[in-house]
Amino acid sequence: MATNALSAFEPRKTPVQARSAVTVEAICEAAIQVLLSHGADKLTTTRVAERAGVSVGTLYQYYPNKESLLAAVFEDHLNRVTMAMEAACKKAHGQPLADMLRDIVVAFVDIKMERADISVALYQVSSDIGGPAIVKKSIQRMRKAADAMLQTAPDADPLPDRLTIDVMFAAMAGVMKTMLESGASAAMVRNMRDQLVLLCQSYMAAAALGS
C-alpha cells in the first residue's frame, strides 16, 4: 500500500502525558468492545466515545475516523504479538534449533489465544484499515528477532535463509488464522500447537538438507 494511502489511517496525534495515554487506552479498549458486540458495520465513533466515557470531540483529537481508530487497535494488537515473539526469540538464544522452534511456536499460539475473539474480529476488517502494511511491519520485526536467534543455534548449519523463515512464519499465521476462525476448542488448539511445532521443526530440517 502506498505511503499516502496509509496516511489516511494514521492517528492525529500521539499521547504524551499520562492522562492522555489513559484516555487513548480507554478509547481503544472501547473500540474493541463495540467491535465485538456490534460488529464493524455498526461501529461508530459515537458508540465508541460513549463506551469510553469521553466526548466524540475528544476521540477526534486522536483519531479522525473509525478506520484510523481500528487501524491503531489492530497495530497495537499486532505489536503485542510481535513483542511476545521477540521476547521468546531472545530467551531461546543458544538453544538447539528444534527447541528454538518449539519455543517460538508456543509463544505465538499462546499470545494469539489470550484474546482469540479480538484476533478474529480485527483480521476480518484488516483489509479496510491498511492491515497488510501493518502486518508487513510486524513480520519484519519478527524476522529480525528470528534471524538473531538462529545465529546462536549450535546445530543450525547452514543457517535458514530469509525465504525459509518467511515461509515458516506464513505457515504459523495461516494455521492459527484457520483455527481461530473455525472456533476451535482449547483442546484442539493445544493439539494444533503440537502439530505446528512438528511442522516447523520438520520444515527447517528439510530446508537445511535441501540447501
Task: Describe the overall structure.
The chain has 2 domains: 3-67, Homeodomain-like (Arc Repressor Mutant, subunit A); 73-210, Tetracycline Repressor, domain 2. Helix content is 75%, strand content 0%. It has 10 helices and no strands. The protein has helices at 3-6, 18-38, 45-52, 56-62, 66-91, 97-114, 116-125, 131-150, 162-181, 186-210. Helix 5 (66-91) packs across helix 7 (116-125). The two termini are 33 Å apart. Mean pLDDT is 89; it is low at 1-7.
Q: Could you describe the largest sheet, including whether it forms a barrel?
A: none
> Ranges with pLDDT <50 over ≥5 residues?
1-7
Mean pLDDT: 89
Task: Calculate Rg over CA atoms.
Answer: 19 Å
Blueprint of the fold:
Blueprint: H1 3-6, H2 18-38, H3 45-52, H4 56-62, H5 66-91, H6 97-114, H7 116-125, H8 131-150, H9 162-181, H10 186-210
Task: Summarize this structure briefly.
With 211 residues, the chain is mostly helical. Helix content is 75%, strand content 0%. It folds into 2 domains: 3-67, Orthogonal Bundle (Arc Repressor Mutant, subunit A), CATH 1.10.10; 73-210, Orthogonal Bundle (Tetracycline Repressor, domain 2).
